[in-house]
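wait is this the right file?? whatever heres the structure
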């Protein structure tokens, strides 16, 4: 019964994230801790709006052996396992392709976090170096930067991953990261106010894009 309720929770969270634009097509995945030994994780390459609880994979956390589920686990399962093994205080790990944070991942720089957002995100948003999606190499890159006080990470040229002590906290961290990324990008644009007119036009177009896509809150 505990597996079934958690599998349904994964479905609900995936649809919510897709509705708000944090997941796109089949890009994005998540894992929830069931107990000390098991996790549930989204399947690989399945449309969120067609996904049912039976599609959600139940895995043994220690070695990622599948216990139940009709589908193949997400190719990013190893990345979530790294988070949930190291962060025993966390019960959720969410990998997104959210627009602004994903754009900032191209810069390859950590983000400072203002005091009012540190309870959710930690003192800074760290960045894991580039590695191909779904590989052990990517999991190991993330593992190297995981810190007990940091709940949000950028994946170089790939997206973001956030964790939390509950599913709700992880969802809140995702939205907080997108707001932080948007604020950081706006500050970088403002700092270039003296650039040539041709560049200013491109920057203003980027600002208009940010204005047209406000950060979507995530309330489970």
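ok assuming it is, sequence goes like this
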């Amino acid at each position: 019964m505990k597996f079934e309720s958690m599998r349904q929770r994964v479905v609900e969270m995936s649809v919510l994230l897709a509705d708000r634009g944090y997941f796109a097509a089949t890009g994005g995945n998540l894992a929830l801790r069931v107990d000390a030994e098991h996790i549930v994780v989204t399947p690989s390459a399945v449309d969120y709006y067609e996904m049912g609880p039976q599609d959600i994979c139940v895995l043994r956390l220690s070695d990622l052996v599948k216990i139940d589920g009709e589908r193949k686990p997400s190719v990013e399962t190893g990345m979530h396992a790294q988070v949930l093994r190291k962060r025993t205080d966390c019960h959720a790990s969410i990998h997104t392709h959210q627009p602004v944070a994903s754009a900032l991942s191209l810069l390859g720089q950590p983000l400072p976090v203002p005091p009012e957002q540190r309870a959710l995100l930690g003192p800074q948003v760290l960045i894991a170096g580039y590695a191909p999606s779904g590989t052990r190499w990517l999991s190991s890159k993330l593992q190297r930067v995981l810190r007990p006080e940091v709940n949000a990470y950028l994946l170089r040229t790939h997206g973001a991953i956030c964790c939390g002590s509950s599913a709700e906290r992880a969802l809140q961290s995702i939205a907080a990261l997108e707001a932080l990324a948007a604020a950081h990008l706006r500050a970088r644009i403002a700092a270039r106010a003296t650039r040539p007119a041709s560049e200013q036009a491109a920057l203003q177009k980027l600002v208009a894009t940010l204005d047209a896509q406000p950060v979507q809150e995530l309330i489970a």
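The two ends are 21 Å apart (CA to CA). so i think its the right one actually
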